[in-house]
Amino acid sequence: MNVLKVYQIKEDAADAIKQQMAELFMQQISVTTNDESLRKISQAIELTIQSNGTSRIIIAEENGIVLGLALVNIGVDLRTGGHYLWLNELYVHNEYRNKGIGRKLLLFIIHMAESENIKSIELETGVNNSVTKHMYNSLGFYEIVSKRYGFSF
């Protein structure tokens, strides 16, 4: 019987699972597979695992196959005087979409945040991503209007 497991990746994660995570992140960010991109993503996975909980990767896995994953960061929110969780990435493998996997990942994250007394969860999604927006709204998320800026070295 196939059983979907949703859990947070720990330091003892198998290399095969880490490799699948890297490949899925590559697919998510639409990067053409090359050694340098894979190296950077693998490095980010290791940094996340070793971050003492400030960054985390949650995966949905079935029979040793990573079907979906989420990358979250935890910070401090001046508005609430507590911690907030930023959902950087939530991605389900193309072949496994519309089967409730993204919802299960998000529910895991919500329950994890609540149990750790995190005050809010924030994320962003594409303007035209109506399927994902519907899932977020169905779980109680609401739209916050903002502009996001970035700077890279």
UniProtKB/TrEMBL annotation:
Coiled coil start-end: none
UniProt-listed Gene3D superfamilies: 3.40.630.30
Domain of life: Bacteria
InterPro entries xref list: Acyl_CoA_acyltransferase, Bact_Acetyltransf, GNAT_dom
Keywords: Acyltransferase, Transferase
GO MF entry, a single one: acyltransferase activity
Domain N-acetyltransferase: 4-153
EC id: 2.3.1.-
Protein name, entry field: GNAT family N-acetyltransferase
